[in-house]
Amino acid sequence: MFQQRMDRVRSLMAEEQVDVLLLSVGADLPYFCGYEAMPLERLTMLVVPQDGDTRLIVPRLEAPRVIERPGVFEMAVWDETDDPIDLASSLIGAASTAAIGDHTWAGFLVDLMKALPSTEFRRASEVTSPIRSVKDEAEVESLRAAAAAADRVAVDLRSGDIELAGRTEAEVSAELGRRLLAEGHQRVNFAIVAAGENAASPHHEPGERVIEPGEIVLCDFGGTMADADGVGYCSDITRCVHLGEPPADLVDAYDVLFEAQAAQVAAAEVGRPCQEVDRVGRGMIAEAGFGDNFIHRTGHGIGTEAHEDPYIVEGNTLELRAGHAFSIEPGIYLAGRWGLRLEDIVVAAADGPDNLTTTDHRLAVIDA
Ligand code: ZN
Ligand code: ZN
Ligand code: ZN
Prior knowledge:
about 30% helix; single chain
């Protein structure tokens, strides 16, 4: 698998005239070679020449963590008093164009630019994203398993099984996290719990605010779940619960959101540009008078990273391909009052959009 991925990135490097690919911290490295760099100050870097042997530069004390993959890469170990930039520069050699991982520490890039003044640096995502964003069948099944685990938590949330009234947002957030882990995730990436007026802030940090009867509670949570090979794929879901009978204006806005989100899921077909999927729902929300209240893009790609290409946003003319996996998560936010968002994970497929998220999409109303 790693060999195939490496072959594919090399042919894209040839097309894009990239002489060497440099991958450090972030999701590209584990995707292409099965090793995840520790996000610390010592340099770890996979050096992938367009042709020639691939080397993994790794500090001596972290070398025991590396699962060696002969044929994919050889290790180039550096000792504590060595200069890893010297080592990297010698492996990069006379490359005129290097593509460097987008999440690499800026300090290393600055040092490499100084050491290699005639090398032009580009973002690695130019050659890694087109490959990583198109999921193969096994990856889609891993995403489906992660989505199903998040669904089980969301079902408990909607049914009232997760206590809300009288608890703080932070307490509920911690419980959502514990449940994600209990359902098979290895890591919780986020668990937003936003009550009442806090729900109008899409990335609200759950705090000490106590959830009261009569309020909307917006929950957006997800984690990373390892597949059979130990590679982690992400989940991400948003559902809203209302404690007690919701006011009529909120119900009306939710109906608009529900219809818009369903239309966007249905529109996520192979061949359709990402921005058109965004426009479908945005148009419906604007039509209902909430145009200024949908203050973010429709969605983001998802895979081994919680947010990656392709982004479902105005200006992205990329046409969806079979295997593209992404969120569809429109929202309507009324500052100072309440907010609503509805989020699923969808995969574009030859026979139509494959919605991995199965939890009921209606507003859940719980007695309180
Ligand atoms: Zn978000
Ligand atoms: Zn989310
Ligand atoms: Zn999301």
